[in-house]
Amino acid sequence: MSALQPAFWDELAGQFGEQLVHRLWLRELLAEAPAAPRLWARYGWARAQKFVEAASLSRVVRGARQRAAAGPVSGVFAEPGAVGASLERRSVRRFAQAPMPRSVLDEVLAAARPLLLDWPHLRLYVAVQRVQEAARGVYEFEGTDLMARRAGVSSEELVAATHQPWAAGAGVVVFVVVSWVELERARGAEPDAYVSALLDCGRLGEVLVAAAVQAGAGGCTASSLDEGVAAGVCGLEAGVEEALYVVRVGMPEVE
Question: How far is it, in rounded angstroms, from Cα 9 to Cα 54?
Answer without folding.
Answer: 24
